[in-house]
Specification:
By secondary structure, this protein is mainly α. The chain is built from 20 helices and 6 strands. The N and C termini lie far apart (about 55 Å). About 45% of the residues are buried.
Length: about 500
């Protein structure tokens, strides 16, 4: 009978499913050590598994790493290296002893493969934890986080060629529509937000908008606003809907499915009609920050600082993507919406010292720079880069990044890091590009050791933190309109 470590290796290999070693089914090559070859990463993974209590999340993480090694061509034939040496070679990717932990490569040594592997681990854990893969009835969906997650899975598919990542992206889109396109289970209203017709809802899941995914149901009509509770109450956010439109546009290209463009267009119509605040004369005067789930009433009367900007650029992106994916399809409804939002963007001061807001400005500038722009849009692009630089100077002067991590929100800083990754696309000055790239790296390296740690503040926002950390590591799909220059 095999000893205990070998049985554990056997179980690991059984869970590898489609993987083979040296062209043979993996289960035939189990021994005191797994034979090396196309799957020598499994030997390393099995070695790490010795003495650990197995969990599905741990095995998934190892599976992801195995696929990455196989894709990247780490093929040494039947190698007789000691497993400890292999473990040392692979230390940026694997689980530490006795508990799951990400061990990043040294700051000066982290390369593209390190970033891919760590992002893959983060996304594998996210998929398992939120009920995406393996599929679970307990779906934990949150629109903002899921928009970034779709782009991350698509980028992992682009980089590795592993179909699992593409399936995760498309499955996540379906789950978001099924969960957030419907009223909450604790709502007296039931079924699809778009209307009572179940068949119509299944075929047009975004037609009524998408819920945020907050833990509490929305504030009933007539109940006074409680500023503390409102952050945890459901409804719809305009800037979350635009993020989801962006994710759908990226999926249309990477997954080669024009149906996602149709869903984005229907979401655009719902968002524009539902959120635009009009005067008594019918003129658009702003964008409501938060609306009820059925888009019938504003839940707050505040206006988002960058919502008109984000909507204008997202609608322009949707216009360009639609023309490429479905060149014969007319999208007449987009033109008046774009014109309205463009007017709302005139004579505005976009400057903010909020790191997530600065990152959003850089993200919007990145997308705008990839569009075929006229003089007005070129002027807007200059305004955005100028505002982001001013805001960044103010933010850095506050020395906020010098505070202990326990007093900071990771996802807000990671949003800045993602925007800074767009510098090669929008910044002409080499020195500034280098400074932005360096700052992005510093932010990522601050939070990498804290990921998978017991830090209470990190754990309180674990899903959004880990997904945005993964985006900061592999941002290309998220920062793209059609294609992105990965050479920088």
């Amino acid at each position: 009978m095999a000893d205990r470590p070998t049985r554990r290796r056997w179980r690991l290999v059984q869970l590898q499913g489609s993987l083979t070693l040296g062209g043979e089914p993996a289960h035939r090559i189990v021994g005191d050590r797994l034979a090396l070859g196309d799957g020598h990463c499994l030997a390393q993974a099995a070695y790490q598994l010795d003495g650990l209590e197995q969990s599905h999340e741990q095995v998934q993480s190892l599976q992801v790493t195995a696929r990455l090694y196989r894709h990247n061509g780490w093929k040494n034939g039947r190698n007789s290296q000691d497993p400890k040496e292999l473990r040392q070679q692979a230390y940026p990717f694997f689980l530490g002893p006795r508990r799951e932990v990400l061990i990043p490569a040294p700051k000066e040594q982290m390369g593209p493969d390190d970033a891919i592997a760590i992002a893959a681990q983060l996304m594998s854990a996210f998929a398992s934890r939120t009920g995406l893969y393996p599929a679970s009835e307990n779906q934990q969906r949150y629109l903002w986080t899921d928009a970034f997650a779709v782009c991350n899975f698509l980028e992992l598919f682009e980089r590795t060629g592993d179909e699992l990542y593409r399936r995760c992206a498309t499955a996540l889109i379906d789950k978001v529509h099924q969960v957030l396109g419907r009223y909450r289970p604790d709502d007296v209203r039931q079924g699809w937000i778009s209307g009572p017709d179940q068949n119509e809802g299944r075929h047009h899941p975004t037609k009524g908008g998408l819920r945020i995914g907050k833990p509490l149901k929305e504030r009933p009509a007539g109940e006074p606003i409680d500023d503390g509770l409102e952050w945890d109450r459901d409804g719809q956010y305009f800037h979350y809907l635009t993020k989801w439109m962006h994710a759908l546009c990226r999926a249309a290209f990477v997954a080669n499915d024009p149906a996602y463009v149709e869903q984005a267009l229907e979401l655009e119509t719902a968002a524009f009609n539902g959120f635009v605040h009009r005067s008594a004369s019918g003129d658009a005067v702003g964008i409501y920050w938060k609306m009820s789930t059925d888009l019938s009433r504003p839940l707050t009367y505040a206006m988002g600082l960058h919502d008109a900007l984000d909507g204008f650029i997202t609608f322009r992106v949707l216009q360009q993507v639609s023309s490429k994916v479905q060149p014969k399809t007319e999208v007449a409804g987009l033109d008046p919406a774009i014109e309205t939002l463009q007017k709302l963007c005139r004579n505005r001061n976009w400057t903010t010292d909020d790191p997530l807001g600065i990152g959003g400005l850089l993200f919007d500038a990145c997308r705008l720079s990839q569009l075929t722009a006229g003089d007005a849009e070129q002027e807007l692009l200059e305004q955005l880069t100028d505002a982001s630089e001013k805001g960044l100077l103010v933010f850095l002067a506050s020395q906020f990044l010098m505070r202990p991590a326990s007093h900071r929100l990771a996802f807000r800083e990671l949003g800045l890091a993602i925007g800074l990754r767009a510098a090669p696309t929008i910044i002409d000055r080499t020195r500034t590009r280098d400074q932005y790239r360096s700052l992005a790296g510093e932010i990522v390296n601050t939070w990498l050791p804290i990921a998978h740690s017991p830090d209470e503040l990190w754990q309180a926002h674990r899903d959004i933190n880990e997904v945005m950390l993964a985006t900061a590591l592999i941002p290309e799909t998220f920062l793209s309109v059609v294609a992105f220059n990965k050479a920088e």
